[in-house]
Amino acid sequence: MKNFFQRIEWKDKLLGVIVPLLVLIAWQSAVSLQLFSPLLLIPPLTLVDTLWYLASSGELTTNILASLNRVVFGFLIGASAGFLLGLFMGLSSFFDQFAGPLIKASKQVPQFALMPLIILWFGVDEFAKFVFIAIGAFYPMVFNTYQGVSSVSKRYRELAQVFDYKGFRYLTKVILPSALPLIITGVRHSLGLSWMFVVGAEIFGADTGLGYMMAAARNMFQIDVVMSGLVVIGSIGFGINFILQIIEKRLLVWRVSTDQGAKCKS
After folding, report:
1. Cα 138 from Cα 103, distance rounded (Å)
2. pLDDT tens digit sequence for 2-12
3. Where are the domains of the chain?
4. Superfamily of domain 39-259
5. What gap in Å lies between CA 131 and CA 121, rounded to an integer?
6. Is the whole model's pTM more than 0.90, yes or no?
7. How far apart (Å, rounded) are the C-alpha atoms in residues 161 and 244?
């Protein structure tokens, strides 16, 4: 049985390599057969040359750091607010009934539709970009935290009463460890959306960042720079998600071990 699952895992990894290769082959074939204009679809090697030029000139590094800086600040603002609100909603049924309908209703509004309003209120300065990114990070965090906290097993809550866990101890020993999987999922989704939203924020108005680089290249019809930006954005987003998945697995292994130890003691 173990060998069977190992074979499945290797097949999945092999598919993960084959599919990108097929895309590259199809891409190069379309260019070679001149199915598209070179102004609309550049050869893969031209993309590699452009990436190398942008990296060696320092332009790519500067724009990546600018985008990451905005993501970090916007994510911290939005995810922190979402975590606290989701925690209060999960712990208090009154607060849930008070704030829940408003949060759920506002979630139905597309976040990008709020950008003109944000510009009217805050202009096109850095703070406006932080607000826009924070909105993207807020909703996944608030709903995942709320779901995690509100779905804590009744048995755990009863055990907390038996051991007289109250206040901060009840929160850190019972609620947060039980809700941890969904909270981590919220962090992963929030950070992923923050990385997506930073591009939109920079396209609306910025003088640095990957979104600005792509918007400026689009205006000058530099398709190689635009595609380079897409590759870099996708690669960094994939890397962020991969790192967070590793952290998630490690934390959940710790949680499973703790739960098993608690069961053995009881």
Report:
1. 10
2. 454 445 556 66
3. 1-35, 39-259
4. MetI-like (1.10.3720.10)
5. 11
6. no
7. 34
